[in-house]
TrEMBL record:
Enzyme Commission number(s) of this protein: 2.7.11.1
Pfam families: Pkinase (PF00069)
InterPro entries named in the record: AGC-kinase_C, Kinase-like_dom_sf, Prot_kinase_dom, Rho-assoc_Ser/Thr_Kinase
Molecular function in Gene Ontology: ATP binding; Rho-dependent protein serine/threonine kinase activity
Record SUPFAM superfamilies: Protein kinase-like (PK-like)
SMART domains noted in UniProt: S_TKc
GO cellular component, one term: centrosome
Official protein name in the record: non-specific serine/threonine protein kinase
Keyword terms of this UniProt record: ATP-binding, Kinase, Nucleotide-binding, Serine/threonine-protein kinase, Transferase
Length: 194
């Protein structure tokens, strides 16, 4: 991160469903983004907690990335899930262009959003408030409050192995070339020579 709070990166890094458009654009070498990319992810997980799916889910990675890049048209709220006006507003405020994204001016603007207004707590008293649900745990590693996850991962997308020659495919290490056509004595011995 530079002195202006920006990161320069030529590779898109992040979990596919949560990655912001500006981070996706970094894949082509235009990677210059700031902390606001994390607020995009907050919008995704608020949506996921309320709806049960990520907002830009698709059956393929390319489909997910296409929806993220076209977020203005692809962000939709399902009719069968009741979501408050304030919840929709904060999600839309996070899942928008970085220049106008909620949080770009700091966390205080997020804390002032109507989504967080309630009668039970404030950000100053939240640590003193009793949680509405306190799970019963039998041990530190008790996972009984989580759904079982099937081991079958199905078809996993992967990048194809390059078919062209790549130098690191050679079985030799520490090859020292002294001059054109000449190799070190150690390498000659490895080949069975003197």
């Amino acid at each position: 991160m530079d002195t202006t709070g920006m990161v320069h990166c030529d590779t898109a890094v992040g979990t596919p469903d949560y990655i912001s458009p500006e981070v996706l654009k970094s894949q082509g070498g235009d990677g210059y983004y700031g902390r606001e990319c994390d607020w995009w992810s907050v919008g995704v997980f608020i949506f996921e907690m309320l709806v049960g799916d990520t907002p830009f889910y698709a059956d393929s990675l390319v489909g997910t990335y296409s929806k993220i890049m076209d977020h203005k048209n692809s962000l939709n709220f399902p009719d069968d899930v009741e979501i408050s006006k304030d919840a929709k507003n904060i999600i839309c405020a996070f899942l928008t262009d970085r220049e106008v994204r909620l949080g770009r001016n700091g966390v205080d603007e997020i804390m002032r959003h109507p989504f967080f207004k309630n009668d039970q707590w404030t950000f100053d008293t939240i640590r003193d408030t009793v949680a509405p649900v306190v799970p019963e745990l039998s041990s530190d590693i008790d996972t009984s409050n989580f759904d079982e996850i099937e081991d079958d991962k199905g078809d996993v997308e992967s990048f194809p192995t390059p078919k062209a020659f790549v130098g690191n495919q050679l079985p030799f290490r520490r090859l020292h070339v002294l001059q054109r056509g000449s190799v070190t004595k150690r390498f000659q011995q490895h080949l069975g020579g003197s």
